[in-house]
Amino acid sequence: MQNLGIAITGSGSEVPATFLDNLGLTELVDTSDEWITTRTGIHQRRLAQPTESLTSLATAAGKKALAAAGIEPQDLDLILLATSTPDDLFGSACKIQAQLGASNAVAFDLTAACSGFVFGLVTAAQYIRTGVYQKVLLIGADILSRWVDWQDRRTCVLFGDGAGAVVLQANSCDRLLGFELKSDGTQNYCLSVAYTPEQTQLVQGINVGKGNFQPIAMNGKEVYRFAVQKVPEIIDKALFRANLSVDDIDWLILHQANQRIIEAVQDRLNIPEHKVITNLAYYGNTSAASIPLALDEAVSQGTIKTGDVIAVSGFGAGLTWGAAIFQWGK
C-alpha cells in the first residue's frame, strides 16, 4: 500500500454565546480581576448552558471546517473526537457523525485531555499516510464547566468551553513535518477528574462501586513546573524530526492553559512575541479545543497563510504532552 502525505486544508470553531468575566467570578469566590489576570492572563471564559451539548458545539465546528476545506460530509472516511467531556460516557463521536450526515465515516472518541488535539492530529495522520483513509475530520472539544468546583478559586478561574476542528486530507506532499508524543502516568495525581465509587451491596458478599466523578483537582505549581520544562523540550524534538530550527517557525500555538506558561515556553525557545498566537484572555483553558480554536481564529483573520510553518504543543492531564510541526494548507 502506497504511503501518502497529509495536508490540513480547513478549520472551524464554535463557542457558547454565554461568557463569564472575572468580575462575575468575584460573586462566587474571594478573588479579583487583577488577581486572575496577573496569574493567568484570562479575562473571561465561555460557558455552555445546560441545554447546550458537546455534540452540538463539536458538530458546528466540524461543519465550518468541512466548508472551509470544500469537503462534503459524506466524503469523510474518519471522524476523530478528542475530548475528555463527552455527552455520553460511551462517546460522542458517532452522534456527531450522524448530525453531520457523514454516513460513510467511521467515528470514535480519543481521550488525552489537553493534549488531545495533538494526539488526534498524529493519529489521523497515520491513517492517511498508510493509505487507509483519505479524508479525516479531527475535532477537539470540551465542556469543562461541567466538572469545575465553582467554589475552588484555584481552578474555577481557569476553564472554559468550546470546540475547534480541522480537516486532514491525503496529499502528494506531506505537510506534517515532525511530531513527538509523551506520557508520564506517575504524575497522574497532578491533574485529574477522579471517579469516587460508593459501595453498593448487590447480594450477600458481592459489592459493586456506584458513584460519580469528582470535580477537577489540580496541583497548579507542579503542572506549571512540568509544562515549562517539558514543552520546550518536546517542541525541540519535533523540530529535530522535521529537520528544522526554531527560526523556521512562523507561528507557535501552545495549549491555552496559562499566559505565564506560554511566556515561559516562548522565552526558553527564544521565539519572538509576534510569532506567538494566543486567545486565552477571551476563552480560558478549553482543553482539547484550545489549539484548534486559536488556529481557526488566526486562519479566519488572515494571520496564518498557506505554506506557513506552525508549531503546536499540547500538555495536561495524564500527564501527557506532545508537539507537532506542520505547514498550513496543501
Automatic annotation (TrEMBL):
Signal sequence annotation: none
An example Gene Ontology biological process: fatty acid biosynthetic process
Residues of the active site: C114, H255, N285
Chief subcellular location: cytoplasm
Pathway per the UniProt entry: Lipid metabolism; fatty acid biosynthesis
Gene3D superfamilies: 3.40.47.10
Region spans: ACP-binding: 256-260
Keywords tagged on the record: Acyltransferase, Cytoplasm, Fatty acid biosynthesis, Fatty acid metabolism, Lipid biosynthesis, Lipid metabolism, Multifunctional enzyme, Transferase
Gene Ontology terms for molecular function: 3-oxoacyl-[acyl-carrier-protein] synthase activity; beta-ketoacyl-acyl-carrier-protein synthase III activity
Subcellular location: Cytoplasm
GO CC term (a single one): cytoplasm
Domain Beta-ketoacyl-[acyl-carrier-protein] synthase III C-terminal: 240-328
Entry EC number(s): 2.3.1.180
Reaction catalysis annotation: 3-methylbutanoyl-CoA + malonyl-[ACP] + H(+) = 5-methyl-3-oxohexanoyl-[ACP] + CO2 + CoA; malonyl-[ACP] + acetyl-CoA + H(+) = 3-oxobutanoyl-[ACP] + CO2 + CoA; 2-methylpropanoyl-CoA + malonyl-[ACP] + H(+) = 4-methyl-3-oxopentanoyl-[ACP] + CO2 + CoA; (2S)-2-methylbutanoyl-CoA + malonyl-[ACP] + H(+) = (4S)-4-methyl-3-oxohexanoyl-[ACP] + CO2 + CoA
Segments forming domain Beta-ketoacyl-[acyl-carrier-protein] synthase III N-terminal: 108-185
NCBIfam families for this protein: fabH, PRK09352.1
Job of this protein: Catalyzes the condensation reaction of fatty acid synthesis by the addition to an acyl acceptor of two carbons from malonyl-ACP. Catalyzes the first condensation reaction which initiates fatty acid synthesis and may therefore play a role in governing the total rate of fatty acid production. Possesses both acetoacetyl-ACP synthase and acetyl transacylase activities. Its substrate specificity determines the biosynthesis of branched-chain and/or straight-chain of fatty acids.
Protein family (similarity comment): Belongs to the thiolase-like superfamily. FabH family.
Entry remark concerning the domains of this protein: The last Arg residue of the ACP-binding site is essential for the weak association between ACP/AcpP and FabH.
Quaternary organization: Homodimer.
Name the UniProt record assigns to this protein: Beta-ketoacyl-[acyl-carrier-protein] synthase III
Gene label: fabH
